[in-house]
Specification:
single chain, 281 residues, alpha/beta, eight-stranded parallel beta sheet, 11 helices
């Protein structure tokens, strides 16, 4: 069993195009929406027109692209501990600084607002995960996210072993094997590496976080450090070889809807949607 999840949906249009095609024409099974990003409204419109695509909320406290900015969903004055000395979201390179200063109450405000944007748009996410933070990056952020998932009736992507050890005793399902982030793979020879990983996939549940993008001129201008990773992901995910390997190796691509049923049993009370006061971009 393999979860192939397209991260960063909504970051910019060339990613949105590739994410949908990687699911509809390729081997990816789901995606994660970055609500604060400029192309998130376009991504949400694509999801509204494709209710069959399962998606999660890619909880976002960073901005990756220096020339293509986004900020928090909550007004900045409500979350000062999430902003750097210029009043902007931190870059991923400054993860330690953010984690040293982020107030749990402000993280909760922002996370709730990001979830509510999707819910208020009439969309139904399946899970929560994090952008550029493994298991939230901090124990209290991880625990907060698990609590929010319980409140909203969602699953959580749990990557690291300490997190797995926390949730497994509660009967909550997580992946059985090391997590794959496609940004950790070399661009050269990536298709051969993906093919080898599929041939060697162990029994149980695995997850790949992939990052497809079409790699057009817009993408190259916005994302000079990442567009090649995204383009090579897209090429493999939509290749005939990838689909043939799944069939040959007996691999089932699944998504978080299956895990969500166990994380949020049908008998558990669901959250009543509440708008976050003062929310605004």
């Amino acid at each position: 069993m393999l979860i192939v999840n397209n991260d960063d949906f909504g970051m910019y249009p060339a990613i949105n195009t590739a994410v949908v095609e990687s699911i509809e024409e390729g081997i990816a099974g789901s995606c994660s929406l970055m609500v604060p990003c400029p192309a998130a409204p376009h991504a949400m419109d694509l999801l509204r027109r494709r209710p069959e695509i399962p998606f999660g909320i890619h909880l976002t406290l960073f901005c990756d692209t220096p020339n293509y900015r986004w900020g928090p969903v909550i007004p900045k004055q409500k979350v000062p501990s999430l902003l750097d000395d210029t009043g902007e979201l931190f870059t991923p390179a400054r993860v330690p600084e953010l984690l040293a200063r982020a107030r749990p109450d402000e993280v909760e405000l922002e996370f709730r607002a990001q979830i509510d944007v999707a819910v208020d748009a009439g969309l139904t996410p399946t899970h929560l995960d994090w952008h550029c933070l493994a298991d939230g990056g901090r124990d209290d952020i991880f625990d907060l996210t698990v609590a929010l998932a319980g409140e909203y009736g969602l699953a959580v992507r749990v990557w690291l072993e300490p997190g797995r050890q926390k949730v497994r005793p509660r009967g909550l399902p997580v992946t059985d094997h090391p997590f794959l982030d496609s940004f950790s793979l070399d661009i050269d020879g990536k298709s051969a590496r993906y093919a080898r990983l599929l041939r060697d996939l162990p029994a149980g549940l695995s997850e790949w976080a992939v990052h497809p993008g079409v790699g057009n001129e817009e993408a190259q201008a916005i994302d000079p450090g990442g567009w090649r990773v995204r383009r090579t992901d897209f090429e493999f995910l939509t290749s005939p070889e990838a689909r043939e390997l799944l069939q040959r190796e007996g691999i089932t691509v699944t998504d978080y809807r299956t895990l969500q049923q166990a994380w949020s049993p049908a008998t558990a009370p669901r959250r009543t949607v509440r708008r976050t006061p003062g929310r605004g971009r």
